[in-house]
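During the reporting period the student researcher (J.K.) took over the structure-prediction task from the postdoctoral fellow and processed the backlog of single-chain submissions. One of the processed entries is reproduced below for the supervisory committee.
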Amino acid sequence: MFSKVRVGLATATSVGFPSCVNPRTVRLVMPGFCKHQRRSLNSESAGVRVLYDGLCPICMTEIRFLQFLQRNQPGKVHFIDISKPGYDGAKYKDVTYEMAMEEMTVIDEKDEVHRGVSAFAVMYGAVGLGWLGRFMMWSPVRPFMDKSYAIFAKESTKWTGRAEE
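J.K. obtained the following structure tokens:
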């Protein structure tokens, strides 16, 4: 067994590693772990992007909970407050403020836009609540979820005291 390890070390030192890997201390390095190969996890193009209304108290309660759930996974979910003056829909698959206010909108890792109940399923899956997202999408439950959310989306500004007159 030890002879195989020595042979492995001997061949590993003869392999051309990137400059960020020290061939003397041969370790198993997964591709993409070197500084020059690492994808920036801080960019909003990586991960799931959740577009939410920061002026809605109900929405903020849920967003704070989701942020708590994903606290140990930075960069996996980005929360974008559409109520801030600098919101630019062009940066988020041309989802305008009005579109995002109509119903929950999430952009997944593949840059696909999900709206309504399916947006919740993607969002919950990204923070470790995939079971809840699958339950919401389950065919016996989905019609109820769609109708319930449609009522909430239509009436939420009234219920939170922000109805437009």
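The committee noted the following: The radius of gyration is 22 Å.
J.K. will present the remaining backlog at the next meeting.
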